[in-house]
């Protein structure tokens, strides 16, 4: 993991290269006040203050051999990524934002722009020395570093190939965090899984013994505190099962455990910040493989809840494993449940890669989540739990089908399926997130991505820390 603490430090007045944040509206005023003989350089470089533009200019201070103009798009609406292009392209050194404008959330992009998963590079790119940012908000430094670490964890887990990240390795990731912190971990697999969590067992039964399915649980906090359950879909690879995906649809299915990565990252943040909650982390970890004992279209399975499910499509497996995990969370008396899942292609058709489809049975919780997402630059989009579509999950033989009998509203019907396993009176939110960035942007390389993590963290922090 990148040493983010070495890249962001409280500003104690040490020498540093100034970063002048400008937008297209402010640039003429800045040039009039500061440019002097540097004006021809700005004009020659055609620097306009657009987002992502940077320009190194001669320094005017006693230490700064150079200063940097950083285009940020709109100063009135800075994003967490406004410094990311600078952090990627500037030379090694120490930097501070000039003037009174603090880095704030912009420091997150500065940190993540310097993180890459290099495990699989035989000849990694030539290393660039650290670009250190001095923060005028020392109280926020540790929190920003924790968010960067959580985001990098999601990215690295999602980017790891399925051959190196099966259910056992996902369990190991939980134990490596939980063990040093003295956090209780319980893993259910084998006969106990088949008897107690039949949907999780059925989805993962076709995998090899080395990649056997399991339910991973971790508990932390005072049992007297409000109970918060975090559930993450951990399908380490999804072939589609007997309803086999085409090659193009299978190519990125190492990322189908992105929900589990989000859940683990959020749990780590909660524990590190010592929230007054009783935390219950649940990760059903499976590989949806193909063999002679794979579950079949037309099979009828009995869930832990007791509801029977007719299998219409073996590629609608994520909702099955989540159903058993949600049931377990309810049994333990959770007051609030959050689940993350790379659940449906329909969500991407509707909202594209950047916006997690957000569902909730609690309007107050939903409003908090959406507001926090806007504030954190981690946007969400709420979709309805439309009761009128419940009939799409009807089965003639069982209590319900695992897949709608219609091509419409696929992300909504998946959420409606999950809702049947959430007990009345429990505030619940479901995030159908992509966990992937299909094209690179500054600070956000192509590959695994945390989408919705910061929004949920901010919203829940306000809810539970004020209790």
How is this fold's topology laid out?
Elements: E1 8-10, E2 17-22, H1 27-35, H2 39-44, E3 54-58, E4 66-71, H3 84-89, E5 93-97, H4 106-112, E6 131-135, H5 141-159, H6 167-181, E7 184-189, H7 190-196, H8 198-204, E8 214-220, E9 227-232, E10 234-238, H9 247-250, H10 258-272, E11 278-288, E12 300-302, E13 308-310, H11 318-331, E14 336-341, H12 345-351, E15 357-360, H13 363-376, E16 381-382, E17 400-401, H14 410-419, E18 427-432, E19 436-437, E20 447-448, H15 453-465
What can you see in these coordinates?
Keywords: Aminopeptidase, Hydrolase, Manganese, Protease. GO terms for molecular function: aminopeptidase activity. Belongs to the peptidase M17 family. It comes from Sphingomonas kaistensis. The structure is a single chain. 33% of the residues lie in helices and 20% in strands. The longest helix is centred in the N-terminal third of the chain and has 19 residues, at 141-159. By secondary structure, it is an alpha/beta fold. It has 2 domains: 4-136, Leucine Aminopeptidase, subunit E, domain 1; 146-465, Zn peptidases (Aminopeptidase, 3-Layer(aba) Sandwich), CATH 3.40.630. The strands form 4 sheets. Strands 7, 8, 9, 10, 11, 14, 15, 16 and 18 form a 9-stranded mixed β-sheet that branches. Strands 1-6-5-2-4-3 form a 6-stranded mixed β-sheet. A 3-stranded mixed β-sheet has the order 12-13-17, covered by helices on one side. The chain has helices at 27-35, 39-44, 84-89, 106-112, 141-159, 167-181, 190-196, 198-204, 247-250, 258-272, 318-331, 345-351, 363-376, 410-419, 453-465; strands at residues 8-10, 17-22, 54-58, 66-71, 93-97, 131-135, 184-189, 214-220, 227-232, 234-238, 278-288, 300-302, 308-310, 336-341, 357-360, 381-382, 400-401, 427-432, 436-437, 447-448.
């Amino acid at each position: 993991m990148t040493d983010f603490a070495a890249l962001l430090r409280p500003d104690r007045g040490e020498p540093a290269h100034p970063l002048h944040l400008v937008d297209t509206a402010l640039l003429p005023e800045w040039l009039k006040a500061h440019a002097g003989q540097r004006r021809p350089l700005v004009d020659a470089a055609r620097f306009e203050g657009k987002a992502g533009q940077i320009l190194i200019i001669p320094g005017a201070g006693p230490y700064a051999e150079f200063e940097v103009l950083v285009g940020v798009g709109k100063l009135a609406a800075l994003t967490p990524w406004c410094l990311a292009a600078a952090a990627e392209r500037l030379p090694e050194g120490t930097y501070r934002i000039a003037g009174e404008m603090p880095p704030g959330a912009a420091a997150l992009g500065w940190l993540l722009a310097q993180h890459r998963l290099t495990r699989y590079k035989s000849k990694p790119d030539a290393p660039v020395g650290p670009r250190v940012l001095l923060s005028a908000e020392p109280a926020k430094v540790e929190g920003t570093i924790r968010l960067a670490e959580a985001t990098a964890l999601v990215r690295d887990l999602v980017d790891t190939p399925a051959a190196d990240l099966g259910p056992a390795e996902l369990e190991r990731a939980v134990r490596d965090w939980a063990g040093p912190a003295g956090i209780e971990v319980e893993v259910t697999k084998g006969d106990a899984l088949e008897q107690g969590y039949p949907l999780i067992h059925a989805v993962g039964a076709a995998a090899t013994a080395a990649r056997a399915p399991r339910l991973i649980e971790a508990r932390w906090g005072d049992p007297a505190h409000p109970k918060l359950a975090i559930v993450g879909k951990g399908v380490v690879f999804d072939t589609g099962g007997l309803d086999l995906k085409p090659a193009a649809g299978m190519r990125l299915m190492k990322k189908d455990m992105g929900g589990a990565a989000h859940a683990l990252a959020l749990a780590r943040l909660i524990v590190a910040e010592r929230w007054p909650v009783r935390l219950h982390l649940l990760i059903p970890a499976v590989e949806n493989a193909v063999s002679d004992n794979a579950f079949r279209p037309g099979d009828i399975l009995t869930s832990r809840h007791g509801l029977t499910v007719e299998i219409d499509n073996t590629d609608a497996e994520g909702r099955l494993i989540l159903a058993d995990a949600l049931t377990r969370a309810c049994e333990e008396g959770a007051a609030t449940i959050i689940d993350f899942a790379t659940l449906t292609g329909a969500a991407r058709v509707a909202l594209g890669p950047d916006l997690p489809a957000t569902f909730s049975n609690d309007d107050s919780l939903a409003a908090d989540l959406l507001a926090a997402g806007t504030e954190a630059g981690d946007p969400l989009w709420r979709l309805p739990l439309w009761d009128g579509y419940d009939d799409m999950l009807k089965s003639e033989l069982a209590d319900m089908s695992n897949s709608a009998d219609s091509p419409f509203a696929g992300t909504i019907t998946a959420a409606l399926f999950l809702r049947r396993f959430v007990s009345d009176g429990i505030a619940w939110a479901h995030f159908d997130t992509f966990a992937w960035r299909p094209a690179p942007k500054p600070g956000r390389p192509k590959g695994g991505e945390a989408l919705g993590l910061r929004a949920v963290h901010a919203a829940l922090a306000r809810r539970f820390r004020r209790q």
